[in-house]
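Risk register update: the risk of archive-format incompatibility is retired. Evidence:
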Amino acid sequence: MTVGGDEQFGDLLRRLRIAASLTQEQLAEKAGLSYRGISDLERGARGRPRLDTIRRLTEALQLTGATLMAFTRSGTGTALPSVAAESTPPASNIPVMPNPFTGRTAILADLEELLVAGDHRLITLRGPGGAGKSRLAMELGRRIGAGRGIAAIWVGLAPLTEPSQVMEAIRLALGAGELESSKTDAVIRTIGSRVIVLILDNFEHVADARIEIAHLLTECPRLTVVATSRTPLGVYGEHVFPVGPLSLSPEPSDSGESEAAKLFRSRLPADAGRSDDGADLGRVIDAICRRLNGLPLALELAAARTWTMSPAELLHDLQTNSSLDVVEQAPAGGPSMHESLSAAIAWSLRFLSGTEIEALLAASVFRGGFGGDALIAVSGQPTATRAMAALVRGSLVDVHDRRFSLLEPIREFAEEQAAIAGMAESLTRAHIRFFVDFTELAALKLFGSEQSAWLASLETEHDNFRAALHNAIERGEWEAAGRIAQACARFWRVRGHLSEGRDWMRRILRAADDLEPALAARLAYSAGSLASAQSDLAEAERLQLQGLELARTLGDADTAAKCLNGLGIIARSRGDEHDGDELVSQSLDLRRQIGDNWGAAACLVNLGNSAVGRKDFDRAESLFDESLQLWRDCGDAWGVAFSLASLAELSLNRLDYVRAANLAAESLELRRDLNDRLDVYITAGLLGEALARQGADEEARTLVFESIEGTFGLNSAESTIRTLANAATVLGLRRHPSGPTLWAAIGPLREQVGVQTDTAEVDRISMAIADTQPLIPTDVWADAWARGLDLTLGEAVGLALESLRDTTGPR
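Archived output:
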């Protein structure tokens, strides 16, 4: 078997087995396979191996990196076997720094040995701010990724405001789904048995999340966590690895130069040469390094000054500057590293103007980076962006893609100085005001032709408006917090941050008496919409009714129309089509009265979906076409994708599989461009079923796998059940007994969730059953069907995913 010109699988397996010094019998024993199976694979006497077989062989042969990918590609015929989720680790995301890593050779070797040995699965790099813990962790992650093919996942915790956000940050870094009940479960499911090193940077300020980290390590047997922190995590099994300043004494193998001196020299301009007073440069550098206690960040800050003064001048200034006397005059044992770093940063600020210092203090209020416009608005300085140039030259601020950011020790120092100067409260309030305005402007832009760019902008500023929300709530500024949450509701829905959005809104709505009634009404609608997306229909209905009552009292036709539409969707989900249509029709009338074409288009789609459910296909197509035209007139890609997906499902019910696939593919492309996660997964399942009906089995299987994993990860039960129906058709057409098992499970699962199956879907499932039942032996079908009647949703999802992994090759 040759795939794309690659080495034949049997030949590759034989070569890798011999390289591992294993006989066929030994490999079979290690992999839990039969000797005959290994022999047949190497001789090419069998077809393409099952994914489970490939997984066992990769683990037994300890394959990593490019070899792992080549082996998997050869066995499956795909370069990235997305359905083999447990075999393919997520890509490493280690930040790339502009300057080369210098020193720490022995420490890096020790750390790498610790990781490879596997005896310690929680390693805390403990040290003071500025000691280089983060940079050391980056280099460690880069080396194990490049040299050993191990996925190293970087999670920066500095921008977070609360320990509860740690698992969300890990989930996002892994690309995991989201579970309302526990984000930890979503992360555990994504990591599974993969070999992953999770690097958690700046853990000390969210230390209460350590219990969840310990739980991760218990549930994921091949996970290793490397944390950087100023204090130990205090978790059982933790191995604390101290990270102090760089060595000030040269090692015999280092040509007489210490690690600290190497770092400082590597940051000097090319023409540094000798000091201007004739002193030996090496001695000057050594004195500078000792003055700064070998702290890497302090050395970086000092080296940045050698662009405007010679090393000898810099040393003289360090020796005569009183802010560093704490370093020179400390008793035996020296000062704390925190004092040393603070002194070094304070010394560096001497070279800045008052405007530049004020800009730095203002920058300390941001999280996760910031743009020039934001800094100008928060600082109140029209020249703040120009001031940033001096801060960048002095290594106090980084800049990338026109966004500025501060290293965490510098941000913390600047934050302390802002408090001392009495500026902290005014800066925090200015930051809140800016992100109230920013998110409200973005909310307006999420409807129409600019939505993709503004969704990306909100994603970029997510850490900042999280911080603004936190600070507003802490200060009891409920109106500001409510305005930000309301403005971000659609972003949270489209980008799949469903649980996070609901968490913020719950906290704010508890203080509803402190909110303007109009804002409380809009928040109730938005919170209900997010609850509905996660199939929490009781909570969704309660919130939508609350919003509707408030909106009617206030004469707010827009919010009332939204709530009526939401309540209509809930009623239809429960099987009450008449009330559902009546409520949505009332919403449509209000939309048209106030000239809201976008909202009218949404109502038309919902009415069309109801018409599909009762098999009134001609009316449904007319409604979908009208909505599609309205959204195209608005230039709204999200709405266009919504109508196209509805037309695709209509075509599927009309048995026009080619048209269904074409429409679903067009919708899916738009939704992927917007990163509209929940709707991407729903549409992928729809497209998978349409393709399976045309015999495109492999593509169908991959799409349906993605759809089930994604909808379940977002805790959208109703959507997950829909995708299980797609999977049942795909599996049934492949003669797999899990097809009837899943079909049997769908009815009871819908009853548990409180969602009814409409007539069109019942007919479509019945037709799929009729088409596939002759393909599976009667006794096998009966047993499989019986197994499905008692499955929980989680069990049905697990069965579907495992069955889709196992069905490879032709029918």
